[in-house]
Amino acid sequence: MRLRTLAAAGTAFVAVVLGGLYAWTRPEAIAPAAGPQRPPSPAVLAAGARVVALGDCMVCHTAPDGPAYAGGLGLKTPFGIIYSTNITPDPETGIGRWTSAAFRRALREGVARDGHLLYPAFPYIHYTRMSDEDIELAYAWLMSRPPVRVKQPDNDLAFPLNFRPLLAFWNALYLRPGDGAAPGTGQVERGRYLVDTLGHCASCHSGMNVLGGERSPAFQGGTVDGWHAPALTRLAQGSAPWTRAELADYLQGGLALAHGAAKGPMRPVTERLAGVPRADVEAMAAYLMTIQQPAAAAAVPAAAHTGTPGAALFAAACAGCHAPAAPMMRLGGRPGLDRSSAVLGDDPSNFIQTVLHGIPWERPAPGGAAAAYMPPFADVLSDAQVAELAAWVRSGAGRPAWPGVAAASAKQRKEMQP
Amino acid sequence: MTKIEVNGRAHELRADPATPLLYVLRNELNLNGAKFGCGMGQCGACTVQLDGKPVFSCVTPLAACAGRKVRTVEGLGSAARPGKLQAAFIEHQAAQCGYCIAGMIVRAQALLDKVPHPTDEQIRRHMEPNLCRCGTHHRILAAIRAAAGEPA
Predict the structure, then answer these.
(1) Which range (A98-112, A175-189, B108-122) has the least confidence?
(2) Number of domains in chain A
(3) What is the greatest pairwise CA distance in chain B?
(4) Nearest CA in chain A to B18
(5) Extended strands (E) in A225-312
(6) Which domains does chain B have, with CATH numbers?
């Protein structure tokens, strides 16, 4: 009896403390905007479009085949599915009632206009350092978009993660609010701002810890949607080091002739960057070259051997495009697989993804990513054969076979096939 | 020796396992329905079914077919007794030059086997990998709709 009373009292105490914390931490709502804003000048709109492209807002805030910026893309996180929100200026379902102060607070602190805390899938821990000027420009441009009325699905998160006030603890750990100052001048400083703040590259390229925070030090590589986002600090080493010009080409065109094409979640990023001035991607490349680490020990080359099952599979399935004599190589100037980042990397995910699912045909963005297409082989090759093929292609690049390819292929097949 | 089943018949093939399935079908088994188009898995003229899924036979290694079931356009009916989908293609005169048609029919059949009454959107999405250079897509869509019992 006494135990039960104690337990009840304890539960009540915890509830009161949590409730109190909730009331204490919940930010105030910001009053809705009074009415339609005055339309901004064409110069402001152009500058705003550039900020939004560099911030990659569209990549998450647009569902496949959905209207631009109306949200609804399901972001698969280890904690459940989070659906991106509608950031068109629709008053009911979008941000039509948001003032620029509410928009600024969302980017700086991860708080919605009505005061609820936003999930960190929205990269406010990076946007927080945006300059006041860039936030205003992005706001002006987004508010000039056509409003789309669409209610996006509710997030699919398990308790207690669906209890948003808990995010206050996460924010205490990971959010370092910025002060709105303009970024430093000079190419490298501009690049740092574009990579670290606006482009939030670390969101994918740093990987996540168990709390969903980004791993530190930054840019050591991560996994997103079954793709490996390579380490950004080891680009200039190995047998196919990236140069600054190649990085700029890749960021803006989706293709570096010496390394391969942008695939998976990186592809839409390069499509957005197709529309920004060349100086911006050159600044990003310049900054990325400053964070390169010295090379580790060289990989031990493996002897290539013919007559393996992988060699036979390659001859029939791949050689038509990827053999040195293939027209795509000789006339199209495509890189040999022995230089491909997906082949040379330490993680087989991107090789497996590309073999299983290919590169879907997409109309090239104007002035941007060159058309890159590859047929899928998921219905052709078994997991064991994907592993045999991987071993053959790796040996051709002078690298030892990856371990566990067949198991990884089976796992990716399960996750990606509808 | 590679054992495969084609249109319900078992075969043991001596061909190099590195041979693309398309060459085996055309040159060894005299099944000339599937065509060589681009040789790079980009046009779909060579489409056949492997365990019920449409694949580009020009980039499908024989080694990958061991112990599996292949179905070609010849497996869906004959000139004398065309299958339902083939009859619909004839009725709607879906062929202009006809080079892509075997691949089109085999791919469409894979959809109808899985989804007997597909929506127009499902048909368009499913057929997207196969190209018709003559431009008879409207008739091809009409034939698929008719075979599915939908208004053409």
Answers:
(1) A175-189
(2) 3
(3) 47
(4) A312
(5) 227-229, 255-256, 260-261
(6) 2-74 (3.10.20.30), 76-147 (1.10.150.120)
Q: Which residues of A touch B20 (CB under 8 A)?
A: 316-317
Q: Is residue A18 part of a domain?
A: no
Structure confidence at residue A375 (pLDDT): 94
Instruction: Write the DSSP assignment of B75-118 as a string of letters.
Output: GG--SSS--HHHHHHHHTT--SS-TTHHHHHHHHHHHHHH-SS-
**Tokens 């893309």 appear where?**
A73
Please write the tens of the pLDDT for every residue from B42-70: 999 999 999 999 999 999 999 999 999 99
| Interface residue B56 vs chain A (CB under 8 A) | yes
H or E element at residue B3 = strand B2-6
Residue numbers of the domain that contains A331 = 309-416
How would you classify the pairing of strands B2-6 and B69-71? parallel
Residues of B in contact with A377 (CB under 8 A): 59
| Structure ipTM over 0.90, yes or no | yes
How is residue A52 written in tokens? 């939004």
The residue-averaged pLDDT of A108-116 equals 94
Residues A168, A60 within the same domain: yes
CA distance A310 to chain B (A): 9
Contacts of B127 in chain A (CB under 8 A): none
CA nearest to A129, candidates A214, A205, A55, A219: A55
Q: What is the pLDDT of residues B79-114, one digit of tens each?
A: 999 999 999 999 999 999 999 999 999 999 999 999
Whether A320 and B42 lie within 8 Å, measured CB to CB: no
What average pLDDT does the structure give for chain A? 87
Q: Is the peptide bond before A160 cis (omega within 30 degrees of 0)?
A: yes
| Mean pLDDT across A72-86 | 91
